[in-house]
Design brief:
globular; 2 domains; single chain; Aminopeptidase; Trichothecene_AcTrans; 31% helix; alpha+beta; two-stranded antiparallel ribbon
Length: 290
């Protein structure tokens, strides 16, 4: 009898997405396996890069979590299921319904088949997007090697909201006016105990910020750097490096910190701080034509 071989789900992939047993058991009732998918719908925020889409990864996660995650074939008729999920009345308010397909764990032939299925349902696909997954393990030695920032670094508060919006928008080239989705997102993060926002305060002006995500109840030893940004006029002064090192330094020893990046300058910065490249995420974005 010949047993069919299987591909193991990389630990870095599971950890960087908080996919370990405690989190999984909160998501599903099944004790066997499931296809992981997350849906985001923010139809009023047409320019919101992280909204108006379904993010799909095709893998099975088995219990107990011991690196036994395996690749899974996507469900049949997946494209038609995704297309039907979007409610037309909700999705026509200048929103762009789309599906982000995580291709990291799939063979190229299988990925091509999935894209063709989406095209048949009226989706158009973009060029593959590649992000490197970086990880840093917080140790006592790492903490001892960090230099205290010469800038004022502090935890953000609700009174900083307007300045945070301005800093976020200018850091990533958004027009400051009309970006209500940024303000709404930052406000939710300031109100949530899952997020910590740290800022560099230069004489009352927020020059840089970083958002850390910690799912303490379900993943005490994991943290995620969601975003870090510096205003253009404060760049090349070491603010981002000092800020990120400071924020990570407040985490407990043993915490594994993850982030994703594609820009070579940013990658060099993260490597200098102590992050290591552990994997690569390749995604394809399929847009549903109206």
């Amino acid at each position: 009898m010949v047993l069919k071989s299987r591909s193991i789900l990389p630990v870095w992939y599971a950890e960087s997405r908080f996919l370990h047993s405690a989190a999984i058991r909160e998501i599903v009732d099944s004790a066997d396996s499931f296809v992981f998918g997350r849906m985001f719908k923010t139809p009023t925020n047409s320019t919101y890069r992280d909204g108006n889409h379904i993010l799909l990864t095709f893998c099975h996660l088995e219990y107990p979590w011991d690196c036994n995650g395996v690749l899974s074939d996507p469900p049949t008729n997946l494209a038609s299921i995704v297309a039907a999920t979007y409610n037309y009345e909700e999705a026509t308010q200048q929103a762009i319904p789309r599906c982000i397909i995580d291709c990291t764990l799939k063979e190229s032939s299988s990925t091509k088949r999935i894209i063709e299925e989406f095209k048949a349902e009226g989706f158009s696909s973009t060029a593959p997007m590649e992000d490197k997954v970086m990880r840093l393990l917080v140790t006592e030695k790492w903490k001892q090697n960090q230099v205290q920032p010469s800038y004022t670094v502090r935890l953000a508060r609700m009174a900083d909201l307007d300045q945070l919006v301005e800093c976020n928008a200018s850091s990533f080239g958004y027009p400051v006016d009309g970006q209500q989705w940024i303000k709404a997102k930052l406000q939710r993060q300031l109100e949530s105990r899952l997020f910590s926002i740290y800022v560099v305060d230069v004489e009352g002006e927020i020059a840089a910020f970083v958002v850390l995500y910690e799912w303490v109840e379900r993943a005490r030893d994991l943290a995620w750097v969601q975003v870090i940004g510096t205003k253009p006029n404060f760049r090349h002064q070491g603010l981002a490096s000092a800020l990120l090192s400071y924020a990570i330094g407040l985490l407990a020893v043993g915490t594994k910190v993850y982030l994703e990046a594609e820009d070579q300058v940013a990658l060099a910065l993260y490597e200098k701080i102590g992050f290591e490249h552990v994997g690569t995420i390749v995604s394809v974005e399929c847009l549903l034509s109206k």
